[in-house]
Predict the structure.
Amino acid sequence: MPTKRTPKVADWTVMVFLNAKNNLEQFSFLNWDQMAKVGSTDRVNVLVEFGRPRRHYSDQYGAWSKTLRFRVAKGMKPTQARALEDLGQVNMGAGSALADFVTWGRTNYPAEKTMLALWDHGQGWRRAQELTLRASAADLGRVARGRQAVRQRLGDAVGSIEPLPDDQTIHGAFRYVSHDEDTGDKLYNREIQDALADLTRDEKIDVIGFDACLMSMLETAYALRKAGSVMVGSEELEPGDGWSYDGFLKPLAADPAAFDAAALGTRMVAAYRDYYGDRDATTMAATDLTKVEKAARALSRFASEATTHLDDHLPVLKRARKACENYAPGYGLNSIDLARLLDQVAAAPAVAPALAKRATAARAALDDAVIDSWASAQRQGRFGSHGLAIYFPASKLAYDNDPDRDGYALGNTNYPVEFVDREKWGKFLHSYFDRVTR
């Protein structure tokens, strides 16, 4: 009777859930080539679940329309012939597909440490409803005028990372993660959290990274705090090139034993910095997920103080919020750098000493959670960019105009955001909106 082969345990297994079943397909090959520049070794497995859409944006490598699994070898091309498994049509916007990939990777390529990367559009804490209608001329005009005003106000700070030209369909492309264009499905953060919960109950994933826009938010980190040890992501939009995979895989493959989760997260931030420098409006951060709950509780104490004495604190809070620039300026999004907000409040102790004290404590807990962060010159200053963003529309009008607002509706049961349910920030926001309507 043949003996079942026991897979060799590597130092690291890197799993990339590469959902190119959308208009980012053409960018996927650059990132693939970066991975293949290094390839897998006896000590590092590089695994990719690669999905491509039925309606192609690129005809490279045979223009196959399905989902394939690969163990990336040095110099490999993503052709059907080189795939380990042909999964056919897979809904990569489903949590079950993500869970199946992680299970497959960890079972067949066990390692002392693991990393999971989600490659696609992103949004931070929830996702937008799909908008399939062509924008009207009036809508496009409003968007174009809004962006023009932002460009005039911020100049070069806007950067060159706009994913949607002014005359394209308004479809919220960067407001969710893992959009599968074939099925119309996407992953809520809660769906990712739930999909990974059982798989990581006994063994966390060491690094969970998002090669996607706007994902480095406290809400996201809170959702993943039990599933992983370190989270890597961007507060801002990502340019089409995304991560520099060879920038962190090359040193990892050269000396895998030198990298724990924090060291790999730091190297990933450095690789992003080295790739983009100050030529674009970019950010990247690594967060210690084991310290996120402590930071969230400190923020809840700040939020409780702000809510309880809101009439007294309102002038300080309004000035602090006004001093913070929204990420993805010109797109009507509502995430800001949390550390900058807290710094603005902490700078006014004579006006609001109790609130300033809570802000200082929350800032310290946040600093403790952020392992490393980087921001280009275009995303410093009023943007702050210290590693973790948070949802904070400037007024009730901004909140009411946000198609994702239901995620922050108190008592929401549709893929509820755990941070909203368990912490005090959401209650503070609604109290704030009662007084700041426009």
